[in-house]
Design brief:
single chain; mainly beta; 7-stranded mixed sheet; 4-stranded antiparallel sheet; 11 strands; globular
């Protein structure tokens, strides 16, 4: 069973950058599609970006041109580069892996954008 561990969150000022990592173990990484989701206090979890097993990427409109998702199949890791961060990006960010009917979540990493 694939397991996911996110890292890279933290406190950053508006306009700053962070790179989130999602390290996977216990499965055939290259077969999975991956996504980054986020959940702010009092709000529903929303999809931020997804990358397929062929590296095709999609983004929610609010992060286009600021966030970049990528994957390194040799390192079994998915990344989310976040630039020009805004206070509204503050949330817990979760990594998700999907293969067929299986959906696996990581534990999340907190991102706080504040001056």
């Amino acid at each position: 069973q694939l397991q996911l561990v996110e890292s890279g969150g933290g406190l950053v000022q508006p306009g700053g950058s962070l790179r989130l990592s999602c390290a996977a173990s216990g499965g055939t990484f290259e077969h999975y599609d991956f996504g980054w989701f986020r959940q702010a206090p009092g709000k529903e979890r929303e999809g931020v970006s997804c990358i397929s097993n062929s590296a095709g990427a999609t983004y929610v409109d609010s992060v286009k041109d600021r966030f970049t998702i990528s994957r390194d199949n040799a390192r079994n890791t998915v990344y989310l580069q976040m630039n020009n961060l805004k206070p509204e990006d503050t949330a817990v960010y979760f990594c998700n892996a999907r293969l067929g009917g299986n959906s696996i979540w990581g534990q999340g990493t907190q991102v706080t954008v504040s001056s």
